[in-house]
Design goal:
Order of helices and strands: HEEEHEEH
Distance between the termini: 35 Å
Radius of gyration: 15 Å
Shape: globular
Strand content: 15-25%
Number of strands: 5
Strand order of the largest sheet: 3-2-1-4-5
Number of helices: 3
Helix content: 25-40%
Length: 99
Amino acid sequence: MTLADLRKLSIRKQLKIRFQLPNGMECVVNENGVAQIPTLRRVPDFNLEQELRMVSQFVLEPARVDPKSPVKPKPVAAAELAAMLATGPSAAAPEHEDD
């Protein structure tokens, strides 16, 4: 699983994907596919793509929450998230057909 995969999933499903980095910082991939580390105040001395390989737990939450029916964030193991990525629409499949 790569950072690009997480970005595509977050955009397609309109999710925020949170995960804890091995160095203790939290990374959030927002619904626009942007990976953010809120506590980072300088140029990182690590490669986010490499750090992602060591992550085993993710938290999925909808980007837009209806105040009338809030949805709890859902913890997901890396293997389950990889399965979600594998069952998504392939890049070669057309989004829609022309009439």
